[in-house]
Each structure stands twice: as structure tokens, then as C-alpha cells.
Design a protein that fits this description.
The protein is mostly beta strands. It contains one helix and seven strands; from the N terminus they run βββαββββ. The chain has a four-stranded antiparallel β-sheet with strand order 4-5-6-7, with no helix packed on it. The chain has a three-stranded antiparallel β-sheet with strand order 1-2-3, with no helix packed on it. β2 and β3 form a beta hairpin. It is globular.
Length: about 150
């Protein structure tokens, strides 16, 4: 799991989201060297034991997805690319990340049906092992209750 600003990142046939949605220009020079002129999406890739690509998909809406660059979160955790991936006994894949997209793909029974406002929403979703179907997805308001002092 990661984040890409590349519209030619390799996805596999039948992937959940074969095309890059991206978002508005994102100046990453503020955080790291580089930028994303066409925004960014989350990507999820799965490899065979011999290292060949088994399945790969973009996951994202029309805004930037997967980058946690909020001042308080970045200051406290220092990891703009933070996200979590876990696999269950059936090889389904669980992902936790963030989104700025009001149209991030979520299931009809999502805890929150639209973007909650603020800088980011948290997202959690479950993909099938072939990365062709989102089994469920939820967007959640990220409440920033932290305060930092330099």
C-alpha cells in the first residue's frame, strides 16, 4: 500500500480502479522533495512469491488520497505516508488511510456517507484478495483534538 501521483502506475486487468483519479496540484516540497502536479491516489499491490505482480489497483476519489500532511498529525507522527494494511485468514486485505475526496469509494452502509469537512477524513476499507472488489469501505471524520508546541 502506498501513494502515487503517477497516472501510469501499473494496475492489473479487472482491478477495482484501473484508472488514476488524482486531485489538485500538491506541493510536496513543503514536506519532502517533489510534488504531485496531478494529485495522488492510494495504490494497493499484491505480489506472487516469485516477485511478479499478482494484482494492483488505484483507490481514490477526485481529490488527494492517502497523504497525511495535516500540521498537527505531521508534527506529532512525522509520517506523511502513514497507512496500515492487514490481512485476514481468507486473504482479504484491510487498509486504513486518509482522504480529502468527498467521492472516495465507500459502501452504501458507510458510517459517514459524505466528506466530513476539515482537512481530511479517515478511511478504512476491505478488499478481496484479487483487488477487484471493495467488500466494504467507511469514511470517518478525523477529529484533531491535539495541540502542539514547538
Amino acid at each position: 500500500m502506498g501513494v502515487t501521483g503517477s497516472d501510469d502506475y501499473p494496475t492489473t486487468s479487472g482491478a477495482f480502479q484501473e484508472n488514476f483519479n488524482g486531485g489538485p496540484f500538491l506541493d510536496m516540497f513543503e514536506f519532502f522533495v517533489g510534488d504531485h502536479p496531478d494529485g495522488c491516489d492510494i495504490y494497493l499491490a499484491k505480489f506472487n512469491p516469485d516477485g511478479t505482480l499478482d494484482a494492483s489497483t488505484f483507490i481514490g476519489g477526485s481529490e488527494n488520497d492517502g497523504l497525511n500532511y495535516g500540521d498537527q498529525l505531521y508534527y506529532n507522527y512525522g509520517d506523511t505516508f502513514r497507512g496500515e494494511v492487514n490481512i485476514d485468514d481468507n486473504n482479504n486485505i484491510f487498509v486504513a488511510s486518509v482522504t480529502e475526496s468527498s467521492d472516495f469509494p465507500v459502501s452504501g452502509n458507510s458510517t459517514q456517507s459524505s466528506f466530513g469537512g476539515g482537512q481530511f477524513d479517515g478511511v478504512v476499507f476491505k478488499m478481496n484478495p484479487a483487488l477487484s472488489t471493495m467488500l466494504w469501505g467507511h469514511s470517518l471524520v478525523v477529529l484533531l483534538m491535539m495541540q502542539h508546541t514547538p
